[in-house]
Amino acid sequence: MSVTFPLGFRARGIRAGLRNAPVPDLALIINDGPRDCVAGVFTTNRVCAAPVRWSREVVADHKARAVIVNSAVANACTGNDGLADSKREAEYVAALVGCEPHEVVVASTGVIGVRLDMPSILKGAAIAHSSLGKGDVVDESAARAIMTTDTVPKTATVENNGARFGGIAKGAGMLAPQLATMLVFVTTDAVVDAEEFQDALAQACEVTFSRVDSDACMSTNDTVVAMASGASGVTMSKEDLVCALTQLCANLARQLVADAEGSHHDVKVTVRGATTTKAAVAVAREVTRSNLVKTAIAGNDPNWGRILAAVGCVPESVAPFDPDAVDVSVNGIQVCRSGGIGDDRDLVDMSSREVHIDIELHAGEAEAAVWTNDLTHEYVEENSAYTS
Fold it and tell me: Are 257 and 266 in contact (CB under 8 A)?
């Protein structure tokens, strides 16, 4: 189970005919209450999709009863017509559910610069609403309906002090902060304070989804939305809420990396000994965004010189360190010692799916980790033909 694991939620994913394949492409998630709290974190891309603009306003009011989401078309770069389409979706779902339009979150993912097929969207919404349910089958249908280039659905559940949390996610490319080209929908039956819920979700995203960087490309549609029904009657402390959301989001973020387009390796870059967490993240991010590093990993080559070169690209004002003091290890072998030659690189075993790059700056006590993946021929082939 996932989004209907917490009490007070129903869901369904159906085929609305938006994709040229016999697969689900539209999902509906309903919060039956008794509470209707919502929180959200969205892309920081200045070119953002119409559903992002709409849903930001919904989240600002802290109340939502439903989420409607489609794959195939992003409804991004569609101007006022696209915004009108998102509004029409919300109005239609609101009428089905019996709430106000500003209590409906709208999300889309897919090709940019294409208008939605509104007759199919609205017909699909009605079908999804008429077949809402709970359990494994409906949860998987919803998770599959939001997939684009994903190869597998991504789901997770967490329990904390009697409260339940569930979530689904999509994302396999354009994974770059803030967030990724991803849609994530989280549900909980906990009783939460609206402001604390928003802050807790933001904190969880900061150390999970925002620490995933597949190809350094930021999406127009990034959306993470969490709804709380309060149906369990369990009131959570802020600390427990952050803990539960972080655990759930970390699980989903790790699944995003594992399904990155064309990838053969999942790569964890950990930077230690930084002056601040911000500095550690900046260094890790520079390494994860290096195509030279990523292609070397694709070839099972522990080319530490490329790693060290990427580390050196971070301005001293952002991450102070002495280049002659930096150590680098790949899968436990210290291939670079004090900015120079370390152990024999031939000792590094890169045959497993996971690759761990550990960088010690020897400049402070802070550390951070960022996940990425290698850059393969398959990634180029898949993205060269995305709209053709």
Answer: yes
The token duo for 82 is: 């696209």
| Dihedral angle, C-alpha 325, 337, 373, 69, nearest 10 ° | -30
| Residue 173 pLDDT greater than 80, yes or no | no
Indicate the average pLDDT of the chain. Answer: 94
DSSP 324: G
Give whole-number Cα distances, 103 to 55, 63, 66, in Å. 9, 6, 7
Total-model pTM:
0.90
The β-bridge relationship of strands 327-330 and 354-360 is antiparallel
Residues serving a catalytic function are 181
Output the pLDDT for position 182.
Answer: 85
Query: What are the start-end ranges of the H helices in the chain?
Result: 50-60, 79-97, 118-130, 136-145, 194-206, 238-258, 277-288, 291-298, 304-311, 377-384
Per residue in 282-324, pLDDT (tens digit) is: 999 999 999 999 999 999 999 999 999 999 999 999 999 999 9
Coil, strand or helix: which one is 2?
coil
What are the residues whose beta carbons fall under 8 Å from the beta carbon of 314, sequence distance 6 or more? Answer: 279, 282, 283, 286
Q: What is the pLDDT of residues 126-159, one digit of tens each?
A: 999 999 999 999 999 999 999 988 999 999 999 9
Structure token pair of residue 326: 């930096």
Could you read off the pLDDT of 200-216 as tens digits, one per residue? 999 999 999 989 887 66
List for the chain the helix, strand, coil content (%; round to 5). 35, 25, 40
88-97, 218-227, 358-367: least confident range: 218-227
Q: What is the CA radius of gyration of the chain?
A: 21
Give the number of C-alpha atoms closer than 13 A to the C-alpha of residue 307, restricted to the C-beta side: 30
**Residue 167 neighbours by CB under 8 Å, 6+ apart:** 2, 3, 155, 156, 157, 184, 185, 186, 187, 248, 249, 252
Task: Reply yes or no on whether the pLDDT at 174 is more than 50.
Answer: no
Here the tokens at position 21 are 């394949």
Sign of the CA dihedral with 213 first, then 56, 10, and 230 last: positive
319, amino acid identity:
A
Q: Which DSSP state fits 234?
A: P
